[in-house]
Structures are given as C-alpha cells and as structure tokens.
Amino acid sequence: MENGSTKIVLVAVIFVFIFAFALYAYTFRNFPPVPNEVISQNGTVLFTKQQIIMGKYYFQKYGLMDYGSIEGMGSYFGIDFTGYTLRLFQDYTAKQLYLDPISQGDMPSNYNSTELNEIKNYLDPIYYKNNNTIVVSNDFANAYNYAIDYYSIYLGSNSSQYRLKPNLITNKTIIKDLTAYFTWSAIISIMGYTNGFPYTIGLTTPSNNAYFSTFAMIGAIFAVGIPLIIYIIKELISHWNDPIVKIDLPKPNKTQKLALWVMLIAALGSGVQGLLGAYVMHLYSTGVLYGLNLLSILPFNVARGLHIWLAIYWISLTWVIFSLFVLPYFGLNISRKTMITVIILGVVTALGSLFGLWASYLQLIPSPWWFIFGAQGRDVIEVGSFWLLLITALLGYVSYLFYKASKLTVDLLKPFAKVLSYLLAGDAIGIFVGALPIVKPFPYFTEDEFFRWIFVHANVEGFWPGIVIAVLALLLVLQGLIPAGLAKTVVTIDAVTEVLTGMIGTAHHYYWTGFPVIWMYIGAILSVLEAIPLGMAMGYVILAAKRNKGNNLNQFQKTLITFVLAAGIGGSAGVIVFGAGLINAPIINYFTHDLQFTMAHAHLAFPLAYGLPTILMWVVAYTLSGGFTERDLKYLGIASIIYTVGFYLQALISLLPLGILQWIYELKYGFWYIKTITTPNGNIGFWNLQVVQNLIWLRMIGDLVAASAIAVIISLMLIRFPKSLKS
Predict the structure, then answer these.
(1) What number of other Cβ atoms are within 10 A of residue 635's Cβ?
(2) Quick one: DSSP state of residue 626?
(3) Does the N-terminal peptide bond of residue 657 adopt cis geometry, omega within 30 degrees of 0?
C-alpha cells in the first residue's frame, strides 16, 4: 500500500461532516412543533414556547440530564421525565373519570383497553399549524397543574429521597418551566413525532417505520456487509506474507520522560474514577453510603458527571501525552517548553473542568457562566464550553504535529503518522461541535440532540477506534509481530470504515427524539455496518497472536500481545454483541433504549476497547524508560486479563440481568416504570424491587475483580516511577 492511499482517510473525514450538515437544513425544517402556546379548551394558556425553552435551560442547569432522561436521552437511573409525565397524566385523568384500575398490591395499576381508550381521548392534543398552537382538553390542563404540584415535591422537599441534592429546586416558577418542558416532550410523543417512543400502554406504541427500518438493516448486511467483509479479508491475505522488520527504539530522553508524570496522574485518576463508579451504583440501592449521607456535596448527577469525565480525561490525556512521547521516534523533536506547556494545559483543563462540573451542579456558579466554565448539563457533554474549546485546541495541535512528522519520518512510519493526524483532526472538529453554542444552551431539544450525538460519535464510534487501531498496529510492527504492509492495510481500511459507519451511524441516536423518519433508516443501515470494522479488529488481533504462536518472544512482546488480545476481543465483543447486535436494531432499540443493556454495552466497550490500550501506553512508556522489569510485565499481562474478566462479570451477572428485568416490566407497565424509586401513586418503584436490589449488589463482584487489576497496575507504576525517571 502506497503512503498516498492514506488520503482516503482524509476524504472520509471531510465527507462525513459534509454529509451531516448537508442534511442539517432539511432536518431542522422538519422538527416537532414547539408551539407558541399550549391552550386548554376553555382558553387558558397552560404554557408558552418561552417556558419550554426555559424548561430545557433549567433541565441542564440543574444537571437533571445526568440524573434522569427526556425522550430516553440522559442518565440510566433517574426517571424518564417524558414517560413519567405521560403516566402522571394517565393516573390523574383516570381518577377524574372515576375509573377503577385493577389493584396489584404494591405494584402499579394497569388499565383495561376500554379505560385506556377513554383516557386517551382526554389526552390527545390538537395542533393548529397556521398559528403554531396546541389545544388540549380541560382534563389535560388539570393533569398539567397536578404535574406541577407533583414535581414541586419531587425536585423540592423530596429530592434527596431520589438521590439528588436536598431541596434541589424550590422556586415554583422554575418548576413550572420544567413541567412545561416535560409536558411538551410528552405531547410530541403522543402526536407521533418520536416514532411512538416512549412505550406507554394506551398512548404510544412503535411506529411501522421501526419494523421496516429493521428489515432495511438486515438487507444491508447482505447487500453491503458481506461484500465488504470479503474485500477486507482479500486485502489482509494479500499482505499476510509481507516481510517483518523489528525496530529497537532508543531510550527516551529527559523531555520525553516528563510524560511519565502525566501517565501516573492519569493512572491515579482512573482509580478515583472507578471509586466514583462504585459510589454511583451504590446510589442505585440507597442514598446513604455506610452511614454517610453525601448527597449535599456529591448527589447522583454530580458523581455520574465526574465519573464519565474522569474516564474521558485519563484516557484522552494519556493519548495526547503519549503522542508527544513517541513523536521524537518519528523524527520530530519536541522541546521541553512544548512538553511542559501541553502538560500544564492538559492538567489544568481536566482539573478545572471537573471542579466546574461539581460547582455548577451544586448551583455555585451564576448564569451565564455555568454553561461556559461549569457544566453544560448535557449527557456526556457535561463540562463547560470553555474547557471543550481548550481540548479542541490541544487535539488540533497534536494533529498538526503528526502531520508535520509525516513529512519528516521514514517511509515505514509515514502512513501511521498521516492517519493519526487526520483522525485527531476529525476528533477535534467533533469536540468543537460539542462546545456549541458556546455561551448558553440550544433553545430546542431536538436541535441539541443533533449536535450532542455528533460529539459523542466523533469520539467513541468515529475517530477513537481508528486511533486505537493505528497505535496498536504500529506497536505490533515495531516489535516485529506483524508485517508493516499488513498493518498499513489494516489501519487504512479500519480508519475509513470506522469514520464512515461511525459518524453517519450517529443517526441511530435519532430514532426517538423527533427527527425526520429518514434518519431511522440511515441509522439502522449504518449501525449494523459499524460492527464490521470492529469485528474485523477482533480478527486482526487473533490472527496476529496466531501468527506469532510458537515464536521465541520476549516478555514485552508477550505482554503486548496479551493486551491487544484482551482489548481487541473483549472490547469488540462489548461493542458488537452488547451494542450493535443487542440494542441498535430499531424495533429492538425501541424496547431496550435507556435500559441497563446500554450500561452493559458501555462498561464493556469503553474500558476494554479504549481503557486497556491506554494502560498499554503507560506500559510501553515505562518499559522504554527502563522502569518495568520482565516480572512486572508478566504481572501486567495477567492484570489486563483480570481487568477484562471484571468488567464482563459486571455485565453478565448484574447489568445484563437488570436490563432483562427492565424489559419484562416495561412490557407489563410501560417505559415510565423501569427507572423509578416510587410510582406517581406511591407504589413501589422498579429500583426498590428485592430482586433488583440483589442484582445491583451483585455488581460488586465484577467491581472488585476489575479494581484488583487496576490496583496492581497503579501500584507497579508508583513503585517503578523513580526508576523510570532515572534510567
């Protein structure tokens, strides 16, 4: 493969952003209506467009998307405010109609079909497009006022009962605006703009497009997937017998060794992140941590936001600093001043944004500064826009350095440098999109979701996989474990397919959030194709291990292969089996969206596909610096396997069974029930079911196994740190 062929990666990066924004105008002309007013039949204005906009504003300001969700978008613990509001309206209307639902003890009531039809007649809204107004029944209006009173208590005096900061929101005007936002989301669901989501018995069911697009997904496997797999295999076979060259890298200089400080900080950060994850799961069971009530300083939404961004930072900071560590091997000199500047910027960005998130969710940062320097309050885009712009600048700079290195380095390394440059640039653009609109939240929910998911996919599905494959393939080449020609082919094909399927596949997050139907078909087709490069990545590492079976390998080579196998097989299976294969098909996703299935997927894909390669970067840097001994490397290889086993135990004995239970109870009661502590009528909620509590606590087994592995890794890094600096 000639170096010039890497330009196809650049073309793919440019194309996916052009594609997304080419459909931007069409999409934004077909959003669900945000009415000027919602009016009852007797002429009373219930709420206005401005109240809906302000409700979204407060939803983010108070970190409620890191607690619960709206239209299934947000956290996996707190209630879905769309589904819960629909149930509030159903229950209130039923009482006004003197309906007598079947009693089920402590469990929620079900209504019969006649009762459901009668309730629906009172809740169906009428939209008048000419003056952009929605008219609802007087009973709907009464239910709306009931919802205001209910959420005043839920988010006010009872907020700590639901794992939020005590007395989170006591301002009645803010509660009214939030309820307007929740009610608007319920209205567009009833009107069919969300393809029938969330499932609410008697009000919403999946649209026919959910079925038809699933068939389109199956067709894509045969029409595109199989030919693509055959082409990839053919390319791999053609390079299978290319010559192998092992390159012994020289010891890093003092400037390069400055990176070891950041890697140690990142390792400690990963430990804190794990502890926060255990605390977050503890809150699923009880609001008290072994006698300590931390909700006033560490409520659920704060802990979750910190847990997510600590994971992002210990991984991404390592990638940035590892880039500066290895660039001298590409022939690009990195000055001590540059290294120190990047380190300071990276650490300040991480610590500053984490503190800002904490202070923002505790309402310690006034408007409008909370959105800029605190927390944006969007799921996975928690940190303020200022910090995201700094991250954009850092990634852009590293992209520029790799491009510069591609002009200086030897032919063997040029393709890797170029691919990394293009992928880092694409990731930087995605981060910038996530920072929008910089100063204050987007006014409309669906508009926000369009940009938010571009940010998410630019990282985990679009550009990060290609970066990881490029780094791992390069390490295997330098250690003489796979031919350079094979590695270049793998890196290029993987980068192009990941970028195209991962970025356009963002559409599978647009199924239920009010987007035009075309996005459901695009998302369904591309979602299944996302699995192909990830599946092939699993094949790459198995073949690499098989190719070296029986060879006389040193301990570093063995450790490298062990890490690559654990990340490739464990991470890819987490993405394919627990992601694309389990939850992405539209008709399946309709019933599994926002359930613990997604948690299982995230807890296998993220720490294994991205966490393990990051830990491997620490291992490489410490080994080249003379820190790790052969015995250390052996222990680290074992730790990588234990780390993988720990996360699979989490998924298989806790998260996956929880998802199955949620699915069963969703079919029985509706989507609203499966993320509740208590129901609107005071019945027992899903999280308080005894079988659910047992499964929550079972997760500790996997937590402890994974924690033991990371403890070994951090301990060895601490012990060998002085030696690594001096060698």
Answers:
(1) 17
(2) T
(3) no
